[in-house]
Amino acid sequence: MAVYTDVTADDLTRFLADYDIGSLRSYKGIAEGVENSNFLVHTDTGNFILTLYEKRVAAGDLPFFLGLMEHLASRGITCPQPVKNRQGGMLGTVAGRPAAIVTFLDGLWIRRPTASHCAAVGEALARLHLAGADFKMKRANALGIESWRPLYEQAKARGDSVRPGLCADIDKELTTLAKLWPRDLPHGVIHADLFPDNVFFLGDSLSGLIDFYFACTDMLSFDVAVCLNAWCFEPDHSYNVTKGRALLKSYDKVRALEPAERAALPVLARGAAMRFLLTRLVDWLAVPDGALVKPKDPREYDRKLRCHQSVKSADDYGIN
Amino acid sequence: MAVYTDVTADDLTRFLADYDIGSLRSYKGIAEGVENSNFLVHTDTGNFILTLYEKRVAAGDLPFFLGLMEHLASRGITCPQPVKNRQGGMLGTVAGRPAAIVTFLDGLWIRRPTASHCAAVGEALARLHLAGADFKMKRANALGIESWRPLYEQAKARGDSVRPGLCADIDKELTTLAKLWPRDLPHGVIHADLFPDNVFFLGDSLSGLIDFYFACTDMLSFDVAVCLNAWCFEPDHSYNVTKGRALLKSYDKVRALEPAERAALPVLARGAAMRFLLTRLVDWLAVPDGALVKPKDPREYDRKLRCHQSVKSADDYGIN
Fold it and tell me: What mean pLDDT do residues A82-110 have?
């Protein structure tokens, strides 16, 4: 939950004067997003989300994120649409931070997804991959495999406080992943963070995708592997093959997975688990004992990683 | 900022089934309130605020708070109105917490109030006092003068870490306040926490009052003294007599202050400063070093208290 920057009514009124969405009626900081400050803004014409980009987001990446949302929306993906100002720009400044205003999406995120939710996510992810195919901008995955060893180096000194032996296990796994990592699978725009809190439902229907601030250009099947990790495990950290099968089959119906992509699923799933294990570990170690806001527990991804390491073949994910 | 309890879509859907406000379209935890968890809820019929009462709020006080909001709204005060469920009740349960849903108020709170905002607040406070006159329920002020020494005892061991000598000064002031504290001034319903973030404006007009969770039965003029502390100081902690005069004159036009209330203003202002100094001090000392969420700085009220101690008479507040 995050509001890092206080925004005054004057700041916001000044910013909105450059937009054609009516005058400000109210705004509230919302407890969502960990990288940016987010506000729900109510004007004469409706509800919007204002995002102030804090220092963890590189300002140079913002045109990619905003351009991508606009592109996807134009291709029929329901996602927040950046509102343009009178000069046609999507980026302004509020309280000294780069800021953008996007349309508000109705919908609820699902705390305990069922196989039917997983199927809906698989389909939406494949549609997103197809819709992104003709997006012209590129952005390297800042949390791709090249970043993992540097992240590990940050966590190494105190990583074993989370679990004795964790650091040696990560070190060994990173060496294995570097050897096995596929390089020539189909690339394109990936969401890279399509966790349940970034997918909205209304009733049983998926109603929208949000939070494109990790989106980048990488292997499409890595995005699938992120979703298997995020959607198809039970609270006891066991993989639920019924959910996995639902997600993979729905994906495959919209965008058929190539044989090489299917075969690579186990190593991609290990890599995806490693990516979230490492960022959670770094965040966990950065927060002092007793802090009011607890970051997410890295051990969840330690356990998921070990589950993937024991997989015999892609079939174990329910792909066939 | 506060969301202490995670609410699932299922929890909330189940809760709303008992209300006649349409079906759930979205909800977001909002970064407001320090005692409770608050959510902005959007249904087919509009926007609402859902509050989950956390353990710092005594469940036995909730009928007072909710009844008061309903009473004041019926007397023309613009404040959130509790929505009644199908049984006519205002209180339910969400995620194991007592919970209530109230109407959403448009409006913005003013970070840097002017004398004209202070005048509007003075008038609104007096109207609130008049509207509360025939409210039948009573609630003792849990943060009234009787609570101050026990709060001080909690903070005593480490209070001087905030300012050397602070504890001795508080101890001495508490003794003085106990001697000088008025007892027979007009009593009634007071808001007790009418800080700028609890007063909404639209344009130059005051559009509503929120957060009645410190409301209680106490001296009306103590509420005036809280507002003088909260609204009429500059960022350098100097008292702005123009703002004070604006607030007091507007109040007095709607509800004339009795001579004894006017005369008591300096000691009431000291008491009000002491109340916020003590609660901020206790909160400040309870949070570990380096925590992400910093409580409000108690030193602001230490400085205000010293300012009030140097006042010669009520005239210094701009009352005449």
Answer: 94
Q: Label each residue of A109-132 as H, E or C.
A: CCCCCCHHHHHHHHHHHHHHHHHH
Contact (CB<8Å) B32/A27: no
Contact B52, B93 (CB under 8 A): no
Distance (Å) from the alpha carbon of B202 to chain A's nearest alpha carbon: 7
Least confident of B71-85, B86-100, B279-293: B279-293
Residue A110 and residue B9: Cα distance in Å, rounded?
7
Q: Could you give the percent of chain A with pLDDT greater than 90? A: 87
ipTM confidence score: 0.79
Contacts of A49 in chain B (CB under 8 A): none
SS3 A221: helix
Give the pLDDT mean for B115-143.
97
Alpha-carbon distance A43 to A63, whole Å? 25
Same domain flag for B129 and B96:
no
Confirm whether pTM is higher than 0.90.
no
Domain count for chain B: 2
Find which of B10, B13, B23, B26 to mutate to test the A interface (most A CBs within 10 Å of its CB). Answer: B26
pLDDT digits (tens, 9 = 90+) for B187-226: 999 999 999 999 999 988 999 999 999 999 999 999 999 9
How many beta-carbon pairs below 8 A join chains A and B?
94
Say if residue A181 is in the same domain as residue A224: yes
| Claim to verify: residue B165 and residue B40 sit in the same structural domain | no
pLDDT value of residue A1: 40
DSSP code for B130: H
Q: Last residue of some domain: B48, B82, B103?
A: B103
| pLDDT higher than 50, residue A33 | yes
Contact A290 B291 (CB under 8 A): yes
Tell me the chain B residues in contact with residue A288 when contact means C-beta distances shorter than 8 Å.
Answer: 288-291
For residue B3, is it within any domain?
A: no
Convert the pLDDT of each residue in A115-135 to its tens digit. 999 999 999 999 999 999 999
| Residue A41 and residue A167 share a domain | no
**Closest CA relative to residue A122, chosen from A233, A300, A250:** A250
Mutation target for B interface from A30, A44, A56: give the one with most B CBs within 10 A: A30
Q: Looking at the structure, tell me whether residues A84 and A129 fall in a common domain.
A: no
Decide which of B44, B75, B103 is a domain's last residue: B103
B26 with B126, same domain? no
The CATH number given to whatever domain includes residue B76 is: 3.30.200.20
- Give CA–CA dist A28/B49, Å, rounded: 11
Smallest Cβ distance to B26: which of A8, A29, A107?
A107
CB < 8 Å to A25, chain B: 106-107, 202
- pLDDT tens per residue, range A204-233: 899 999 999 999 999 999 999 999 999 999
**CA-based nearest residue in chain A for residue B9:** A108
Partner residue opposite B1 with nearest CB, options A31, A105, A109: A31
Cβ atoms within 10 Å, residue B283: 15
Q: What is the span of the domain harbouring residue A95?
A: 9-103
Q: Which of A10, A105, A108 sits opposite B9 (nearest CB)?
A: A108
